[in-house]
């Protein structure tokens, strides 16, 4: 009740009275006066306005109105456009905004609550400071009140970030419906606001797009329409980064998909909207599929919208419009097939025997620590324990798997992130990552970091044994080509397709992920760059009828990782070997002297 009253503009007085008999609660409240009048906003310089906003945000009883927030934003935009047109909007490009008789409705196409007064604007080339204060006092005030400013006084973007920070706090006090209207307002005036507010990047602007808008409300649909319109009219791929940032809160993506599903012309705009985004971020397809399924399962979505989402799913997965993408997942597997592999007793016996023979071949004693990454339910630890390796450690992404493995074997098992293994440097004599788990790294950066972590925890002379599917054999080759062909439909240049080593997997036809499967030479190069010298590669046939082959890489940790990495890169350059196209930079290998 208190929240509803505050959101309606009332301020509570005193303590609510509880009736001793009936349990009724009596509130005393009065209608709140606006915290900022339009005249006060127009007559204040920007820094004074920021200070007043910061003080207002600290008042828990104050709830701003949408008019107040829009006035604050528009005042700032008007100040910059009138004093410094070169900041973003040229007078020649938008003459109607600078005419003497320009009305409030024509100015920047922004819904001004009241007309601006250009005589009260201040020169923005002046630092934002109170009269008589020095730079250190000015900067100290920003740091203590706002807390998100660079340490150097008068940093170029510091004051702009301060304004955005306070605006975000003010916006956060709006009611959900007002948040939806403000989000639509920012999207529809995106380019003008981005230029006029002098924000250093688009992500700062999107800090104003707050979460908390009910996904099933009319405001949410309006936001979805605004996102859709923005994407349709955007020409430059780089300008699609707002959608990338907006994909972090799924609420905004659900709003977009509802808008697309409700659009009668969705078949004509799905590829222009989502296709342009996927050309820039092609490995985000599985995330889009997952978001679409979440949207489809929203409780208040209509049958028409659900049918529209099914058609969008079919288009994204390369299926015909007549295919039910949700119920007939077999059709989807014809394009993006999940590998058909079972860890049979035969495979388990082969793996355990191969490991034991390999460790004996390279004279690895059974007294050292044996670490298994992606250990699952711990069958490999069980087998290695039976072979005499008493000190085993299992690491897995899934807590339940780790729990089951510990209950089965009694060995040390932990839930862990492969990119930051919870082990000391040089703690292990053997590290394994088998069962084709490395493709779950989802990309070259995580792949390299994982190999780097394996190298870090391995002692010099120790063995690292990892496996990967051979993308040139069997159905893996077909699946990679299917993904490339699908990306070609979205406009990825054909010359770039040979650097796409991904497949889309779905164990249940509902949840999707992308798997990273680089070619054999790229894997060997990455291993060597991380100080893992490749001793041999064993080809392990996968027990199915598709001709799939598993590559098992037997590697040894070198004494000097950095020296080996330099030698590896130099050798590749001398041979004019093709360096992996899957990355433009390298994760710096860390030797024992550099690690913690």
TrEMBL record:
- Asked if the keyword Methyltransferase belongs to this entry, the reply reads yes
Q: Name one GO biological process term.
A: methylation
- Domain Methyltransferase type intervals: 371-465
Q: Name the source's superkingdom.
A: Bacteria
SUPFAM superfamilies listed in its UniProt record? S-adenosyl-L-methionine-dependent methyltransferases
Give GO MF terms, alphabetically: S-adenosylmethionine-dependent methyltransferase activity
The record's InterPro entries line, in alphabetical order, gives:
Methyltransf_11, SAM-dependent_MTases_sf
Instruction: State the protein's name.
Output: Class I SAM-dependent methyltransferase
What organism is recorded for this protein?
Answer: candidate division WWE3 bacterium
């Amino acid at each position: 009740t208190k929240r509803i009253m505050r959101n309606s503009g009332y301020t509570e007085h005193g303590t609510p009275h509880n009736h001793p008999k009936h349990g009724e609660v009596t509130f005393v409240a009065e209608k709140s006066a606006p915290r900022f009048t339009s005249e006060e906003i127009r007559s204040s310089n920007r820094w004074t306005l920021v200070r007043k906003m910061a003080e207002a945000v600290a008042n828990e009883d104050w709830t701003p109105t949408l008019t107040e927030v829009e006035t604050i934003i528009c005042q700032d935009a008007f100040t910059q456009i009138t004093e410094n047109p070169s900041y973003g909007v040229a007078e020649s490009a938008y003459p109607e905004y600078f005419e003497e008789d320009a009305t409030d409705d024509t100015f920047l196409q922004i819904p001004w609550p009241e007309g601006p007064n250009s005589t009260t604007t201040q020169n923005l080339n002046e630092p934002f400071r109170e009269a008589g204060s020095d730079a250190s006092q000015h900067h100290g005030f920003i740091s203590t009140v706002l807390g998100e400013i660079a340490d150097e006084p008068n940093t170029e973007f510091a004051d702009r970030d301060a304004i955005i920070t306070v605006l975000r706090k003010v916006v956060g006090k709006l009611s959900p419906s007002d948040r939806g209207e403000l989000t639509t307002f920012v999207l529809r005036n995106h380019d003008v606001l981005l230029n006029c507010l002098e924000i250093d990047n688009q992500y700062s602007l999107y800090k104003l797009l707050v979460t908390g808008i009910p996904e099933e409300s009319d405001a949410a649909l309006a936001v979805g329409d605004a996102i859709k319109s923005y994407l349709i009219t955007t020409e430059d791929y780089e300008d699609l980064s707002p959608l990338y940032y907006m994909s972090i809160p799924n609420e905004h993506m659900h709003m977009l998909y509802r808008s697309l599903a409700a659009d009668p012309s969705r078949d004509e705009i799905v590829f222009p909207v989502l296709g342009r985004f996927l050309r820039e971020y092609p490995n985000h397809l599985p995330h889009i599929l997952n978001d679409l399924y979440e949207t489809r399962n929203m409780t208040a979505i209509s049958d028409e919208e659900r049918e529209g989402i099914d058609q969008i799913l079919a288009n994204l997965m390369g299926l015909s419009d007549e295919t039910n993408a949700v119920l007939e997942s077999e059709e989807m597997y014809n394009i993006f097939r999940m590998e058909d592999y079972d860890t049979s007793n035969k495979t388990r016996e082969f793996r355990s025997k191969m490991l034991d023979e390999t460790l004996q071949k390279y004279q690895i004693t059974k007294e050292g620590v044996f670490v298994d990454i992606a250990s699952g339910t711990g069958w490999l630890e069980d087998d290695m324990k039976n072979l005499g390796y008493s000190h085993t450690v299992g690491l897995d992404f899934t807590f339940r798997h780790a729990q089951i493995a510990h209950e089965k074997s009694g060995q040390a098992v932990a839930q862990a992130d492969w990119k930051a293994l919870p082990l000391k440097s040089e703690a292990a004599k053997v590290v394994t990552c088998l069962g084709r788990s490395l493709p779950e790294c989802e990309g070259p950066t995580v792949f390299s970091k994982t190999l780097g972590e394996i190298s870090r925890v391995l002692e010099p002379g120790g063995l690292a044994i990892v496996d990967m599917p051979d993308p040139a054999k069997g159905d893996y080759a077909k699946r990679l080509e299917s993904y490339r062909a699908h990306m070609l439909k979205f406009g990825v240049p054909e010359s770039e397709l040979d650097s796409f080593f991904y497949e889309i997997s779905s164990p249940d036809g509902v949840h999707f992920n992308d798997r990273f499967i680089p070619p054999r030479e790229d894997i060997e190069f990455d291993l060597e760059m991380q100080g893992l010298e490749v001793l041999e590669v064993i080809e392990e046939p996968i027990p199915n009828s598709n001709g799939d082959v598993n590559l098992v890489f037997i590697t040894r940790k070198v004494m000097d990782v950095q020296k080996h990495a330099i030698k590896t890169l130099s050798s590749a350059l001398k041979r004019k070997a093709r360096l992996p196209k899957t990355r433009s930079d390298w994760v710096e290998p860390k030797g024992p002297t550099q690690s913690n």
